[in-house]
Design goal:
Methane Monooxygenase Hydroxylase, Chain G, domain 1, mainly alpha, 0% strand, single chain, elongated
Length: 100
């Protein structure tokens, strides 16, 4: 099924319709959380690649926090989120060391 489309309900039973509605709502929340995390990661990576340690420093904590929230909400798997955090921290430390 294409992304962003409502699930098709074959049965018109009340519980089936309710579960389909709930699935749509959860998908919307998950999409928003995933988008938020990806946007913050992109911003941090651009600051790191530009060598701007100050901007990267201010973006690092909110990005790591957003990744933790995504893990707790089940949007990201724990290992995936930890891998992202580790790689971002390593890249930030490299920029910080190069500046000093």
């Amino acid at each position: 099924m294409a992304q962003g489309q409502a699930t098709k309900v074959k049965k018109k039973k009340k519980s089936v319709l309710k579960r389909a509605a709930q699935a749509g709502q959860r998908a919307e929340v998950n999409r928003a959380n995933r988008t938020r995390v990806r946007t913050l990661i992109k911003r941090l990576r651009t600051a790191i690649s530009a060598g701007d340690a100050g901007a990267a420093g201010t973006l690092l904590q909110p990005t790591l926090s957003a990744i933790d929230v995504a893990i707790s909400k089940g949007v990201l798997h724990e290992n995936t989120g930890n891998r992202y955090k580790s790689r971002l921290a390593l890249a930030f430390n490299g920029v910080k060391a190069a500046k000093a």
